[in-house]
Write a structure and sequence with these properties.
The protein has 319 residues and is α+β, with helices and mostly antiparallel strands. It is built from six helices and twelve strands. It has a five-stranded mixed β-sheet with strand order 5-4-1-2-8. It has a three-stranded antiparallel β-sheet with strand order 3-7-6, with no helix packed on it. It has a two-stranded antiparallel ribbon with strand order 9-10. The longest helix has 29 residues.
Length: 319
């Protein structure tokens, strides 16, 4: 989905796909350098197939973003014709993932390779969809990102727990300074300043853990009617949990002193591996703007209808 020139603004991606009714194939093309697919996991060295998000052009009319399955390597690992692939280069973390860049030069795929749960194209080139509103259709295409946000929210909490467990155990063994001359040195966790650094973060991580488990159950038990609520809640929790995680890991690194720099204590590694969570599956600032817009819209709608708040965590406003 991501391109060099477009990340959060998926609707503006520049890859173009047209339908050739004479052969029953879709033709995928990268029209400019900013349209190259970027950060695609596994693309640089390994994957054989990818899902390409692209503008679909039917009879000269742009029907918006759609998704297609395309083969980029054969069974021997050789890159397919009319496809160019390059590595994205070394990163501050997640270097076990071979993120790649992909260019398509009029690559042909069968008509059946369109992922058509939301819209389809008939053999003779007619565009078919039950969702006539382009905005609703676009939202339906992107609804599958919700699972990624649920996963990020949960994994960010796990990472925070690891950092806090490390630093609190260390704080119960490391001593510094004494209260009286020649007296025993004091455990650093017995200092109020150290408690004020760590214990509020520990308490908040308990709350975040309960929230992440609640979000996971919402997703497992989801119904079509819950799509909007899950989108809003998962967006909010993804941003909040990933921001919270990075704050915790930095505090843990500092609270461990020099020991926090050691790779074996994992805190630096976790910072490098999890930092990108604030960007992928939706930039956190953009996600929180979506959340604010949804909450404000719900508030206005309920006040207008004079009905009680139900959902999106606004029920407390009924009183």
């Amino acid at each position: 989905m991501t391109e060099l020139g477009h990340g959060s603004n998926v609707r503006g991606i520049e890859t173009v796909t047209t339908y050739a009714s004479s052969t029953g194939e879709f033709v995928i093309n990268t029209p400019c350098e900013s349209a190259q697919k970027y950060w695609i996991g596994g693309a640089a060295n390994h994957v054989t197939h990818t899902i390409v998000f692209s503008q679909l052009i039917i009879d000269g009319e742009n029907q918006g973003v759609h998704a297609f399955i395309a083969q980029i390597r054969d069974e021997y690992g050789d890159i397919c014709p009319n496809i160019r692939i390059a590595d994205c280069g070394h990163k501050i973390g997640l270097n076990g993932v071979d993120n790649g860049r992909i260019w398509f030069d009029n690559v042909r795929v069968p008509r059946e390779n369109l992922l058509n749960s939301v819209a389809d194209v008939s053999p003779d080139g007619k565009y078919l969809t039950a969702i006539k509103d382009p905005d609703q259709r676009f939202a339906a295409f992107l609804s599958h990102l919700t699972s990624g946000r649920v996963t990020i929210a949960a994994s960010a909490v796990y990472s925070a727990k690891i950092g806090l467990a490390t630093v609190i155990r260390y704080s119960l063994t490391r001593r510094a300074f004494s209260v009286t001359p020649n007296g025993p040195e004091v455990l650093i966790l017995d200092y109020p300043s150290h408690q004020q650094r760590l214990l509020p973060l520990l308490a908040k991580t308990y709350a975040m853990s309960f929230a992440a488990n609640h979000l996971k159950m919402m997703y497992v038990k989801r119904t079509p009617e819950m799509n909007k609520v899950i989108h809003v809640v998962s967006s909010a929790f993804k941003a909040t949990a990933s921001w919270h995680n990075m704050r915790i890991l930095q505090e843990c690194r500092e609270a461990c002193g020099g020991q926090g720099l050691k790779t074996e204590n994992r805190i630096g590694q976790l910072k490098g591996e999890y930092d990108v969570q604030s960007t992928f599956e939706g930039d956190n600032n953009v996600l929180m703007q979506q959340v604010s817009k949804a909450l404000f819209g719900e508030y206005v709608a309920v006040k207008r209808s004079k009905k009680p708040f139900k959902g999106l965590g606004l029920e407390h406003m009924n009183t």
